[in-house]
Amino acid sequence: MGSVERGLLRQGLRYALWLRLVVVATASFAALLLGTAREPVPAAVMVLLVNAWNVYYAVRRLRGAPRWLVPADVTVVCAVCLLQVWPAPPDGGSESTIWVSAAAAIIMVTYPWQVGTRALAIATVAVMTADIGGAAIANPDGWLAGLGLASIPIRLWMVAEVALSWGLYRLVRRSARAADRLVARGERLRRDAAIAAARRDDEREYLAALHDTSSATLLMVGAGVAAGRERWLADQASRDLEVISGPAVVSQREVDLVGMLREVVRHTPLRVRWRGPAAVPMRAVDAVMLSHGTREALTNVVRHAETDAAEVAVSVVGGPAGTVVVEVIDSGRGFVPDQVPDHRYGVARSVVERMARIGGRATIDSSPDLGTTVRMECPRTPPESDDDNVEIIATRFQRGLLWATVAINLVILLLLDLPKLLASHEVYRSVAAQYLAMGGFVVLTLVVATGLWRGRGIGRWRWPLLALVFVLSAVATAAVPPEHRLGYAHWSEGNAGWTVVLLLLDTRPLIFMGVLGAHYLMTFAQTVIGGDAAISFAASVNATVIVLAFQLGVGMIAIVLRQLAVSSARVARAEEEVRTTEAVAAQLAQDRRERYAELAETTVPLLSGLASGELDPGAESVRRSCAVEAAKMRRLFAEDATVPDPLLHELRACIELAERNGVSVAFAEFGERPTIPTQVRRRLTEAPLWALATARGKVRLTVVGADETVTVSVVTGRPPEIDSFPDSDGVHTSATVDGNRLWIQSSWQGNS
Fold it and tell me: Which residues form the Histidine kinase/HSP90-like ATPase domain (predicted)?
């Protein structure tokens, strides 16, 4: 059962219980005050006890009813029906006991929201039997007459209302299920999109984290700048291991950004001046991104700024729900941001792209010899996305309720009112007027049904059609003689209101109730002006209450459903967020495990050895291994399928790294190259990357494309040790030593 259907059943039960309380109280107290009871004291006690039981029943039902509560309720209703002799009038008439039938009917109307179809049928038969039996007890000499003009419509209406209420319940619940299916379909699409987006973002964040931690550490060791920092290096390597093995952050809970930033600062080999508030609570995902960006900015100060001091400033702009701003400021050597190559990872991707992924922004303000300011901004409260679930649920509810009202109107007109019309020909002043009104109401109902079938509303025709309803109702009432008005022959008295309901279901509550009430007032005014009616005022009140209550109840259902659409959409989105978060977390955890497994044979042993002190960062072999691994990571960071030539883009990133280590690289490329898969590019660049990372002095790098074949070759000085590069993924690698020169060549045939 989906959230929409659960919400419907919960709200429907509350609505049903409130409808029962109000209608029974109105009908019973009106009859007690306006009528004359045969046994006034027992009748008053009956009214009080019935209403007290209704309150008790509603409270227990809302708290979770025991199994015996509904059978007990049916028993109470049957007892009231059987004891209607007490409120019966002294002259033996039945009009004063119509409230009993009205109360029994409205109670039965609420049962479809509480019991199953079989139990509803059994309860209906039991209550109807008790009501007829009670009428016989109240008037044993004329109980058949008691089933005549005044009470036959009420008792027929009791059965009709139960059936119509059951149909209304089934149609609206079917609409809720349809809305749940549509919401679930949308959720699946959004969840798949969220997982795909989260995987892309997490991959970028993981690469950014590798760049900020493991790659930077290994690069420092490979470049020989870690000398004298063995203690800090061991701690840093330990933290790097935690980063690459740690879980992805998808939590929406709040954490303290300031605490996280202070932890970053604590592990930085700089004198850092702090400026900002004591605490800044915000979403964990955003706080982690800001702290990672701060870590990278401070790492860049250590590596490039040629200063041992920096400042970290935190502020919140625009109030508590505004924008969080983190600035990392140094007064070091500075640089020209526009001159940073696109393949450089730190500024463009580790900071700027990181902020963009969480809806923020980052700017770098720097000039030579004037220092650098890295400014990161992130909205503290992410903007809420438009929720189309509300429209989906509301539309489905509206369609279901409209179809139910169309069915109710047609059933009442054709199965209940038409027999009255046919049986009362001799009563009417004009039979043609009655058929005109009946046909008009049926046609109006079919017009609404046709528009509903075609997916169109009545729009600007609403008020002309309502005016037509009032005219037809007035014509039908005028054709009934005054002494028969509000009686059996006056079929249009309240039932014409169902066409009003059908035309006003999607309007505001005050408009709905005002127009419906105006229709009843018009009918009563015609009756009062005409003279004596078929039934007394007290009986007319009770007869009107039972019909009007159901009509107002349908209108209230429309209001409840509109409110329920909003609350159900909110619940559905909350549940969706939980399920999506769990699915994203599971997928990202699997991705992280796979990425960690890729590093387990290369990066992890190096970091573990540096963290434990088993590896000497000053040893030539350790430096060489760290340089090679750092170069592999740099090539990985440079992977970008959107650039025109990914192979050259990745190689240039490795060349830039080698040049920063003092190597002079001569690079050339020739010919046309086929499209190269990512895994093949990794194999093609593996040996040249190793050569660039271990080279000293001069290197010549060449890329040649011819006849669907790609060849990458490197000529460099002969290193003390040469790695082996087995063939893989169709890439053949050879290494040739000629004196003090090493020639490495990797080739791949595109159509192989």
Answer: 285-382
CA atoms within 13 A on the CB side of 390: 8
Q: Is residue 110 classed exposed, middle or buried when 0-12, 13-18 and 19+ CB atoms within 10 A define those classes?
A: buried
Average pLDDT on 308-317 reads 92
The number of CA neighbours under 13 Å toward the Cβ of 176 is 24
Q: Which residue has the higher pLDDT, 196 or 148?
A: 196
Quick one: which H or E segment has residue 738? strand 731-738
DSSP 3-state of 713: strand
Alpha carbons within 13 angstroms on the beta-carbon side of residue 194 total: 18
Q: CA triplet 276, 277, 282: central angle to 5 degrees?
A: 110
Q: What is the pLDDT of residue 146?
A: 46
Greatest alpha-carbon pair distance for the chain in Å reads 132
Token pair of 697 as six digits: 């002095």
Length of the chain equals 752
Contact present, 105 and 158 (Cβ < 8 Å): yes
Quote the distance between the C-alpha of residue 126 and its chain's center: 45
Output the six-digit token pair for 515: 């127009």
SS3 assignment for 43-58:
HHHHHHHHHHHHHHHH
**Which region among 304-308, 521-525, 593-597 has the lowest average model confidence (pLDDT)?**
593-597
For residue 283, the 8-state DSSP code is: E
Distance CA 275, CA 326 (A): 10
